[in-house]
Amino acid sequence: MQAQCFLGVDLGAESGRVLAGRLHENKIQLEEIYRFSNGPVPLAGTRRWNVTGLWSSILKGLTLAAQKYGDQIVSVGVDTWGVDYVLLSEKQEMLGQPYHYRDPRTEGMLNLATSRVPQQEIFDATGLQFMEINTLYQLLAMQQTDPELLQQARTFLMIPDFFHWLLSGSQVVEFTNATTTQCLNPLTGDWAYDLLRKLEIPTSLLPKLVSPGTKLGTLREEVMQYTGLRKIDVITPATHDTASAVAAIPTSQTGTPNWAYISSGTWSLMGVEVNSAVLGKRAFELNFTNEGGIDGTYRLLKNIMGLWLVQECKRSYERQGQTMEYSELAEAAASAEPFRSLVDPDDPRFLSPSDMLEAISQYCKESNQPVPETPGQYIRCALESLALKYRKVSGWLEELTGTPIEVIHIVGGGTKNELLNQFTANACQIPVITGPVEATGLGNVLVQARAAGAVSSLSEIRNIVLNSIETKRYEPQEKTVWEQAIQRFDSLLNNNKVKS
């Protein structure tokens, strides 16, 4: 039997890819057809996404896929990061170049929102972690600074839904990405209309919500002509990249919260899979989030700043004329003095600093710690701090679910950072299993395969991934020194009164 081919468009904060997933005999082979760059574009004092440029690159990748796999191709679907969106006018024109979530216009919007609606009430209505990058605060910022443009809007689409519209003409928002907005009610499974009205955000532009695996239609005629693809289906994967990544975690424990995951990349998203949103006072106090997953599940998780700290340190050194590969930085960190300096990765100063080295140095000065002096010291500080934050979050997850975590699965690009993986096992004192690197792409194409009837369930998706990849296991080490570091880290957070 000929392999079936499913095309996944995976857009990340730094790059995008068109991928081909070929399913045959209970195994999936993922191939990168075309890779292209992505990132914020400075535009008259703002940060924007170049979505028209991304669309051009997507079309090129689809053209190459059509040339290679032709009639084997069954469908295509898009996943991206969360929170960002596109607005369309009544005549289906894009209203402005979409904002990047790190654009500074949302500064102060969380405080504005909570001055109108109590913070607990916002959490009860959305179940989402409070971050000023959330769509809710982006819309509130637009309401404050550009109300005329917001009034012109007739359709709100998240970034992946925008590309699905370009592919098929559909105008819907897929559930998993909608849950990143802080505009959706996890109890009703629909938009949080009452909350949005209280904040005077128009709700008429919010389209219908659909589940992962929904067939949106077939390709537009113009797309077929441009790319050479036949009339294939356009199917929503789990359009939030983390939801797709979690769908591809090779666990045999689907349906239980006794395993945790870390989707490790620019952001680290750490959580457990639960059957319903976890709300209430304690989840609110700990600032946890409930994001949608496959089959109506929720990902009870926390966003952690992630390898952004390392990426920005690398960029800082490059601006100084020092070019170092990630492998060199990891090697330098491995030989640096342990636990010399620690930071809270989620301190607001690290979200969008002009210079990450300076931001880390300032944190260390303020907390009376030695300031890092070498690349190895800076990177070790970042990696040890991340691992210790994972330990904090794993403890909170156990508290919220009442279930001990027995293993942590790490997926995504961060699986290549073996030093961080071992630090994570050491800090959490439970085994860590890494892989797949391409979890998001695998989850994307396999959800499409399930929609096409080639796969029957979420458990089967994960079994196929396990059959198709190699994993690596890290056992915990150095318990005593890491326990001491945990106590020091707790004191650091308490002394700086950081709400984590």
TrEMBL record:
Could you tell me the superkingdom of the organism this chain comes from? Bacteria
Give one GO molecular function term: rhamnulokinase activity
Note the InterPro entries from the entry: ATPase_NBD, Carb_kinase_FGGY, FGGY_C, FGGY_N, Rhamnulokinase
What positions does the domain Carbohydrate kinase FGGY N-terminal occupy?
6-246
Q: Where is the Carbohydrate kinase FGGY C-terminal domain?
A: 260-452
The record's annotation in Pfam families points to: FGGY_C, FGGY_N
What does the record give as EC number?
2.7.1.5
What keywords is this UniProt entry annotated with? ATP-binding, Disulfide bond, Kinase, Nucleotide-binding, Rhamnose metabolism, Transferase
Which family does the record assign? Belongs to the FGGY kinase family.
Cross-referenced NCBIfam families: rhamnulo_kin (TIGR02627)
Protein name listed in UniProt: Rhamnulokinase
Query: What are the top taxonomic ranks of the organism?
Result: Bacteria, Pseudomonadati, Planctomycetota, Planctomycetia, Planctomycetales
Gene symbol? rhaB
